[in-house]
Amino acid sequence: MFFWSLVLIAVGIFSSFIYGRSRIKLNSKKQGTKSKSLPNYYAQYVLMWCLFPALIVYFSWAIFQEQIIQNIVISNFEFIEGAVYNEGLLLAEIRNVANNPSFADGKSIEIINAASHYSSLRQISQISFYTSIIIIMLLGALYASQKLKPEFHAQHTIEKYIQYILIFCSSVAIFTTIGIVFSLIFESLRFFAEVSIFEFLFSTEWYPFIPIREGQTAAEGSFGAVPIFAGTFLVMVVAMCVAVPLGLLTAIYLAEYASQRVRKIVKPLLEILAGIPTIVYGFFAFVSVAPFVKAFGQSIGIDASPTSALAAGMVMGVMIIPFISSLSDDVINSVPQSLREASLGIGANKAETIKKVILPAALPGIVGAFLLAISRAIGETMIVVVAAGTAPNLTGNPFENVTTVTVQIVVALIGDQEFDNPRTLSAFALGLVLFVITLLLNIIALQIVKRYRERYE
Amino acid sequence: MNNSIAKEKIISLRKKRSLEDMRFKYYGFTAMCLSLAVLVFLLYTIFSKGYTAFQKTIVLLEVDYNQEVLKLTPDSSDEDMEKGKFFRVKKQAIENFFPDLSKSDIKLVKKLFSINVDKEIKDYFLDNPEVINTKQQIWVTAHSDVDQLLKGNSRRDVPEDRRKLNDIQLSYVDQLVEENRVKQVFNNFFFTKADSRHPEIAGVVGSFMGSLFTLFTVFILSFPIAIGASVYLEEFAPKNRITELIEVNISNLAAVPSIVFGLLGLGVLLNVFGLPRSTPLVGGSVLALMTLPTIIIACRASLKAVPPSIKEGALAVGATKTQAVFHHVVPLALPGTLTGTIIGLAQALGETAPLIMIGMIAFIPNIPTGLTEPSAALPVQIYLWVESAERGFQEKSAAAIMVILIFLFMMNAIAVFLRNRFERKW
Prior knowledge:
Chain A is mostly helical. Chain A has 15 helices and two strands. A two-stranded antiparallel sheet of chain A has the order 1-2. The longest helix of chain B is centred in the N-terminal third of the chain and has 49 residues, at 2-50. Chain B is built from 17 helices and three strands. Chain B folds into three domains: 2-51; 54-192, no CATH class; 205-422, MetI-like fold. By secondary structure, chain B is mostly helical.
């Protein structure tokens, strides 16, 4: 349906363009004056008045059609008294029967009625969709054609419209942020209505069990996120222990020692390491590193679990190496050459220059890089989902199973969810924590790096 | 006397210092080599675990297309042929697979074959209807357990109760190998089928198409928006608070964890706007929002690289600012923006977590054909196969990783090509 309407819109704007062009030529000939702008601008003017109203109709239909139809179907549904209905399942069933009549066998009469109601509504909606698109495009063209007079400054108007479009494009980023903040806060508030915020932040018991069926008395879930935060922290620390020395030393070597040829070869290779999807690292952690960690733990007498903070953290560290090394490389390169020369000039050798002059000078930038890397490690999902486990252990032992914020978000939202229980909503509360922490780290890091840049520019 | 002691001291100190210098250099060198060694080891692991997935094991089965068993006649119509009792033919073929099989043995033999064998027997017949009432030797797909055993991925020496195949089945397999009734051929299923519960007939095409549709959505949404945004910020935006806010916003958005974008998709696109779950449309929209900052930053860099003299020249001959930008600056920056977009798309291709959030993790056994159809995506498919308990899926996940890496490699090659071929140095 929506494909053909795109074709319809395309035909509409094409003909509106042609129409606008010929109309302004005709008008200016009639009046015997030259038009203020080139004919193409008048044509574009008509085109815009056709296209944008049509697009608004198109998107509002695409977004709201299904919901409105479903609401009407549900409100007209003949509920049998006493029976318990699950709205989502009911709708799915109605849709199935409507889309595929062969599913109707054995379904109750209410469902079949609702399904035919549903398909008739869809038909009505389709017809009115096409009509309204055609009408709105005609109206737009009509409005625009009234302005097609030679004394009208079409080009100015068009350029103004283009400005609006560009402003809209750049504000998409703002809308995205607003969308993120609002969806996280809104669902988190629903979560905190059922679970106190103090329990969430300070309690150490994470058993997010909820009754599966209505009326079932299961153990009350408890939502103390401390073990999750601790697990995230542990994995992050392991990752940084791997990534910081390797990344920083690599950066120093590349920036200060390596020949141009080595740099030319190694830098793209490190970029490959950075471009590998995280799920691939997850596979690597699961298949190679985790068994190795388990065997290693056993050989030194520690009972390691098959998925562990150590395995996930090590692989995550490898993932972050190129991140740290390229950022530090930039930072080290932007240390002024004069500092280096001064140090070498008074007789220090290269290592001394690096350790005593360049690194202290580059320190703020390097710290900024570390903070960005930490924020990366905290937000990383697939490696930990595959290799760190899901058990909320409050432990400092990296050989044990731990869980992280991102893992719990995934676990809470996998599969079909209903949004009325704290288990699902907890994902948004955890997401909010994650968002706030990474944002803070990022803002601080960017500030530090910016100050650092200013110092040497 | 005093002098020579001091000299010795200086010499030994200098030796120490230059030793220190050497050591530090080698630390750096070792760190770099270690990082690269991990890359090599990673690729080696993927290749060594995955290359076997490109082969499948097939078994020679003698099928008797008896018309009475099939309940067909040689002149049945095509429609009747479709309804032939092929499962009975298969049952008979398995009963006679080895001479003198007892009932319990037949059950064991049956487990050596893939669930797809019914279909293969049927397809063979439909392709060659003249074989009715003859005995045919057909190569059919073996069960994943047999496949894994022959590929050496599952071990024989573990105790029987921890093996998928018991001792009797092992002896059958050995017998088949001895009689040359089993062989390994190219696994066409991997490149023609979508996901399946059965490893031996699971393929990568469904998720590949899903990824293509998703990337298409990402491109359609993010490319125009990114160009618009970067043109505005680079050429038109007044230097004020709002512009600064937008810029800070974009750079911060680039560092928001991808999973948070998944939550955005779930909370807004699915729950508020009610877009269809598990579809490339929603997945692509979320990934477009996620990659937008990356692409905007790249686009701005390439706009910046166009020398101001070009714009000034256009302005000088009387073009308006809009004309100067859109007729001169943007076309010159286009190769650079395309390169940036492709790099953004490569990032989107490997992203898994947001797609899980919006439900692209559902089990989809057919190949999607549109943007609004539920589908899988390559990285999510890999995740599902990695997490699967079935041993046969492990090689599949490694092979799917190879597919995604080749895909990524090609995208980056195109980006590099565009950059080298079309980007102008001023």
